[in-house]
Amino acid sequence: MDLGLPSWLPADLDPVTLRFNPTDLPALSPTVISQALTELGFEAFADTVKIYQDEQYLYVESNGMPAHQMMVGITSWQQQVPVPQSYTGSNAWKIPLHPVIAENPVSAKTSLYRGAIALAVNGVPIFNALNNRGDDALLYGELDEWGGHAGRADDYHYHVAPLHLSEIVGMDKPIAYALDGFPIYGLTEPDGSAVTALDELNGHFTADGGYHYHGTHTYPYINGGMRGVVTVNGDQIEPQPRTQPFRDSLQPLQGATITGFEMPADNSYALEYQINGQKYYVNYGFNGNVYTFEFVDAAGNKTTETYTKPG
């Protein structure tokens, strides 16, 4: 029976288990990869996400803020809040245009606890499903209804696949790209067929000689590591943009559940949380690089803090 497998696969390959040594594989076709990156989901967010490329990278500029609501549903909250980031110019995201299969793939189970491992097509970074302690961030209540939260630099990012993006870009488009350059699709194949035989990194090879990952409802939720060649420095992939913290990272607020998040005006945000049924608020906004925070306790008492963001 002709399984339609690529001609370059080893002749002794077991077609059922698809077990082979990745070092036997050639670099994937630049034509296939470049086409995937230009047909892709980023243009659905053209108002907030800008892309351009050179011979090596696709560059993606964004402020890291999604159009959907954020933070609601978090039950383990470190008191960070989302603010726009400057992922532009020399600090833009860089997605390799010509990814190459790695001789030794990097597993996100044991590494890559710092920084992003992928970028969603709405310009929001995606981190390891495991937090910096090695715990599943979703199971620990650290994520909102969209699978994201604000990190220590008040930078919003996902820790699971933003599967809702398939509804916006279509199932035939990637919802994200791993930082090794390989695309990440949603719960189906691009042609709408069922996903089968994912490897330990939540990806698989395709009949045309390509490779891609999938988002799933179960761990690792997104790419479970890097099938492609990457540079890892300090337990994070390089290059990637830097965030600019402007206030101290905070500690978890025991018993708090985030129950509301709004943007009442441009550059202005309002977060509501509850402890023992009582409501508290964090109202904040910015003018240029000056951020003003107003903290409102259950009795209505207000405290104001002002910060200047670097850069």
Detailed description of the structure:
The N terminus is likely disordered. The longest helix is centred in the first third of the chain and has 9 residues. The chain is globular and about 65 Å long. A six-stranded mixed sheet has the order 6-5-9-10-12-11, with no helix packed on it. By secondary structure, it is mainly beta. A hairpin with a 3-residue loop joins strand 1 and strand 2.
Query: What is the rounded Rg?
Result: 21 Å
- What profile does the largest beta sheet have? 6 strands, mixed
Strand order of the largest sheet: 6-5-9-10-12-11
Find the count of extended strands (DSSP E, 2+ residues): 20
Alpha-carbon distance between the two ends: 61 Å
| Helical/strand content category | mainly beta
The dominant shape is globular
Number of helices: 2
Helix content: under 10%
The low-pLDDT segments are: 1-26, 30-36
In what range is the share of β-strand residues?
A: 25-35%
Helix-strand pattern: HEEEEEEEEHEEEEEEEEEEEE
Mean pLDDT score = 89
